[in-house]
Automatic annotation (TrEMBL):
One Pfam short name: HisKA
PROSITE patterns membership: HIS_KIN, RESPONSE_REGULATORY, TPR
Organism this protein belongs to: Flavobacterium magnum
Coiled coil stretches, renumbered: 355-385
This protein's name: histidine kinase
Domain Histidine kinase stretches: 389-609
TM ranges: 329-349
Amino acid sequence: MIWTDPGVWSGFVFIFACFKSDVKKIASIILLLFVQVFYAQSEAAEKKAVEKIINDAAKAFDRGEYEKSLSLSSKALVRAFRLDDDYLIAHSYNAIGVVYDEFSESKRAIEFYKKALHYAENIDNDVLKDFINSNIGSVYYYSKIDVRKGIEYYKKSLYYATKSNDSSQIAYAKMNITAACFYLGHFSEGIVYLNEVKGFIERKGQPESKLSYYGLLGLYNTHETKNPAIAEGYYRKALEIGQRNNMMSFMANTYDNYIAHLEKYRNFRQADSLRKIYKKINDSIYLENRPGDLDDTAMQIELDEYKAQLVKIENANEAQQKKIRDSRIISVLFGILLLFLLTMVYMLYKNNIFRKKINAELTKANEELRAAKEIAEQNSQLKTQFISTVSHELRTPLYGVIGITDMILDEHKELVNNEQLNSLKFSANYLLDLVNDILQMNKMEDKRTVLEEIDFSLQEEILTIRNSLQFLADNNGNTFSTVIDPNIPERIKGDELRLSQILVNLASNALKFTHNGHVKITARLNAFVDGKYLIDFTVEDDGIGIAKGDQEKIFEKFVQIGRKEGDYQGTGLGLAIVKRLIDLFGSSITLESAEDKGTRFAFTIAFNQADEKLIETITPEVQQHHMKLNILVVEDNKINQMVTKKIIERNGHRCSMADSGDDAIALATSEPFDIILMDINMPGMNGYETTKKMRAMGMTTPVIALTAFDKKEVTAEAVTAGINDVIVKPFEPSLLFDLIEKQLK
């Protein structure tokens, strides 16, 4: 270890200077003036007595009477606590820490030093703070507990030495920092502090400080500049100072560093010669400093006993301090009670006025908030009504456009590849998708979307999605495949429609932005936990990909990324709907993508087990109804009449038309019908009222509502009116006949 002066002067010695602290004024309305003066004089005398005990403890320590030193320091601590004097308490704790430090009880030494520092920080005495911080730093450094922490305390010591303008202590603190930095190998940092003390050491330095200074310079030139000649010159200069002043302990450390230097530069003969001298010095120091009759084991026992005594002292002091605090609190309470009561009365008066003012403002604010809430609710309702009405008014003509287009294509096969006709159908379908997306987003924002639990076949659902999107894959030259884990049950329970919306949106996006590539939907069973099937879904493609900077915002509404001329003109709602639906399932979606390499979406959804009774009754194939049906269509729109009639007749059934509810009732009473297709939104008597009248007349013919409104908006009222099922226009003909088949079973 590198020995430096502050380790001796401020690390392992007592602070002997006496600092008079101001006598605390004791205020009491029942004590006479002469009692106060007498008490103050007695307190001053007691402080001097405690300071003398601490000085006696220091002298005992210097003589090697460590047990006596510790005993005196403990007595001083008890009396310092009685005086409630932070300076004397700090001084006493520091003295106790020095004894433990001497016996390498580093942990206990640090504990007492830190207690000393705690009380020292309560007073304005920078010299005391300087010494205590230096002592703590020395324990961390010399015991090699934490050299870096030792440097921190040395720097605090330097701060207080600088504040007290003590040149000697400033020099010692800087050399302490230098020694610790050199130990860590931080020579460039340490030499800065050493250079700063050069002038003071050469002019006013004591022999001890000069010996340490030149020893550190030798060490610096040994390891940093690697100049052996200069280093040896500094070592010899340090040893000359030590020999001249009989400083054996300091010389031992310098010899140690000098020998290491000679061995480093392979001068083994001189190193062996110096080692013999070094051994003699070490032996003489040991014999000189060894306590006469003190047995180490016995001393350790005494230290342990004093530990217990100190704990008792501190506990007693804490109890005493509590009593003092309680007494002070009572005195203060008596002194301020009247003022407090007067203040409270005044505050109550002011608070009452303030409360009335605040209540009036809050009442006004509440009224404004209530009005704003009502306006917001009205606006939300108007928005919902507006979207619902617009969607209805758009779906009605779209039903006609799509239906007539299909009729033309069906009747004129030569127009199957007609660009204008296909563009018309595409535009109509696109507009229909737009309406559906806006409706879906509006419902989710209004929190009107609720998951349904129905039994369905995941395999059939994914196959249906693939078949419905195959035309899009063919248009862009893509291969479109699906992979379904065979471990997934034949039927599961969950919201089939919402799952379909998610997969259709993701797959259609992939197909639209991939050209001459591959798109794949995968479903794999992850686990079966607590009666739920956790199924992992992925939709991946090798298309244009998504830039890293755009990946966070693609799930926002109306955001469109990577659109190029001729690309699909979407609404930017598809992925926003996907994310909200997956959130509704209590899951989350992940995205992996790279530009020109492709995109992969993944999510996991939990499904319940399907009902066993339903599984047993389900047959693999739906029996088709081959009878020629007599169907009544109730529709006020002529174009829609034509489209619906064509769909029915094209499938081999007979169709009768009614323009109004009254006409429908008249026809239904004049001849039997197998099924009635009822428009809801009709002038005069609407579809609900017409059906109610039919049911009131005893008609049991199944009624399927044809409506351009959202299905969930009309289902409840339709059931109340006696309508059996609802289908939304425009619709796929196959879906209509599936519903008819279902009602006729």
